[in-house]
Amino acid sequence: MIKRLALALALLAPLQAAAVEPSEILADPALEERAREISKGLRCLVCRNENIDDSNASLAKDLRLLVRERLTEGDSDEEVMDYVVDRYGEYVLLQPTLTGSNIVLYIAGPAMLLLGLGIAFVYIRGRRRQETAQQGLSPEEEARLKEIMGE
């Protein structure tokens, strides 16, 4: 019995679990394909980092229906995306645009890394200079050391 269950699970594992319900699928295959392509770029606001086609959340279902509704009304792909972004904000995009305040977010990570590397370089360089300055004794210090040692 356990072997059969393991075999069944092994056979079912490769199947992709899409959350799109049969009642949501459009009759026109071209429109359905467009809806799927648009849905791949939209984030489920509940699940995070999962597109709305793969999510079972009710909000993802609402977004899928909204996309299909806009397509059946004759909107282009760009118009559908603009409508969804206007309604839910740019966070709904899985790949945000490189404009406006997002540029700061894209640049901030590498800039902070470079700043940190620069600070580390200056700190290490200063420590090395300090160490080389302290390595040898001055002639006066050597004379005083010999005097103390009794030589």
UniProtKB/TrEMBL annotation:
Q: InterPro entries of this UniProt entry?
A: C-type_cytochrome_biogenesis (IPR051263), CcmH/CycL/Ccl2/NrfF_N (IPR005616), CcmH/CycL/NrfF/Ccl2_sf (IPR038297)
Instruction: Provide the CcmH/CycL/Ccl2/NrfF N-terminal domain boundaries.
Output: 8-149
Function according to Swiss-Prot or TrEMBL: Possible subunit of a heme lyase.
**From which domain of life does this come?**
Bacteria
Q: Where are the transmembrane segments?
A: 103-124
Among the Pfam families in the record, one is CcmH
* Alphabetical keyword list: Cytochrome c-type biogenesis, Heme, Iron, Membrane, Metal-binding, Signal, Transmembrane, Transmembrane helix
Record carries keyword Metal-binding: yes
Instruction: Report the protein name in the record.
Output: Cytochrome c-type biogenesis protein
Q: Which residues form the signal peptide?
A: 1-19
The similarity annotation says: Belongs to the CcmH/CycL/Ccl2/NrfF family.
